[in-house]
Every structure is written in C-alpha cells, then in structure tokens.
Amino acid sequence: MLGPQVSDRPPAANEAALVVLVPEVESLVGKFRLAHDPSAALGVPAHVTINYPFVPSTRDGAELDKKLGKLFGEVAPFDFSFRRIGRFPHQLYLPPEPAAPFRQLIERVAAAFPESPPYGGIYHDVVPHLTVADSEDEAVLDWVEAELAPLLKLRLPVQSRADKVWLIDNSSGRWQHRSAFPLRAG
User: Fold this and answer.
1) Is residue 109 a contact partner of residue 10, using CB atoms and an 8 Å limit?
2) Which of 70, 85, 115, 185 is 20 to 30 A from 91, alpha carbon to alpha carbon?
3) Which residues partner with 160 through β-bridges?
4) Residues 159, 22: contact at Cβ < 8 Å?
5) What are the beta bridge partners of residue 166?
6) CB atoms < 10 A from the CB of 126, how many?
C-alpha cells in the first residue's frame, strides 16, 4: 500500500500539454505517481511540463505541428539531472538541474503562443518540476516523501537528456502521445 490515496478529481476533457518525458525516473517514482498523481492514472508518464494547458491543442493539426517543429528545432538538446526532492503547497516533486533550459523552453512557447500561458497564467514564476505526488493532505505528502527519501538516497542523481518535446492530449479520455518535436540546434 502506498499510503492514503489522493482524491479523484474529474479530468478536463480535450486538454493538451507540451512535455519532456523522463523515462529514467519512472521506475523510481512511478508507483508513487500512480497512487498520488491523478495525471499518471490517466496515462501521463513521468515528465517535466513545458506548457499546460496547451490551448492550441491538437485540433490545429499540420500547421501547429509545423510551428512547433520550427520552434523546438531551434533549441539544442540538453542534459539534466534530478538530485533532490522539492515541495510546493500540495505537491512533492523532483526539480531538474539545471532548470534554465526548461525555463527557456517554457518562455519560448509562451512567447510563440501568448494565448496559452503556462498553467493558464496563474503562476507568476513557473518552476520546472517532475510531479511525484499531488495532494491537499500534507500527511500524504509527508508519507510519500518519507517512503521515497531512502530510495532517492540510493539512486540519485538520475541523469537524463532532453532531446524532444512531446505534444500529448486527453481527447480520448486518457492522455496519449500525439507528436514529438526534436530539439536540434547546436
């Protein structure tokens, strides 16, 4: 058992997101995410969010793919790692280091798609992160952190490379990969 379960929140229909997938941490945080991050239960793998909700969505088809391909094709792939646990109110996460390349991707998308500010514009400063648990119950987050800390001590740092950004959506009721946009410049 992974401790108290996060309450199920109804997913919004027809949402999209731009994300950098991080399969290297799935074996480390996957069971915690599945139990305590509603997006994981709906098919979202471990990731760092670049833009959510991505307003243009997948309905814009080939033109959107072309614009995103050009936007991300001007960015060089980069290496990053996870070295520690971080905490927001109601969320336990892993911060990628360095964070600057993720911030640059977030800012590029926000500039190219001003109608789609990250997180709907509710945060003044967007902190790149990989969500491990999401709960309004601080005891749940304390429990997950206590369970995860010894594993992290043994396995961190986890190294990864951002070489593409994925457009994912939940138009089918579960999150699915729609398009991948390689990072190429350099």
Assistant:
1) no
2) 115
3) 80
4) no
5) 19, 180
6) 20
Inside any domain, residue 1 = no
pTM: 0.91
Classify residue 6: in a domain, yes or no: no
Half-sphere exposure in the Cβ direction for 133 (13 Å, CA) = 32
To 10 degrees, the CA torsion angle through 175, 180, 181, 182?
Answer: 130
Among positive and negative, which fits the CA dihedral 122, 124, 127, 128? positive
Q: Across residues 4-19, what is the average pLDDT?
A: 62
* pLDDT exceeds 80 at position 6: no
Residue 173's pLDDT band (cuts 50, 70, 90): confident
As a whole number, mean pLDDT of residues 74-97 equals: 97
Residues with Cβ within 8 Å of 138's Cβ and at least 6 positions away in sequence, in order, are: none
Q: Does residue 7 lie within any of the structural domains?
A: no
Share of the chain above pLDDT 90, in %: 81
Residue 8 within a domain? no
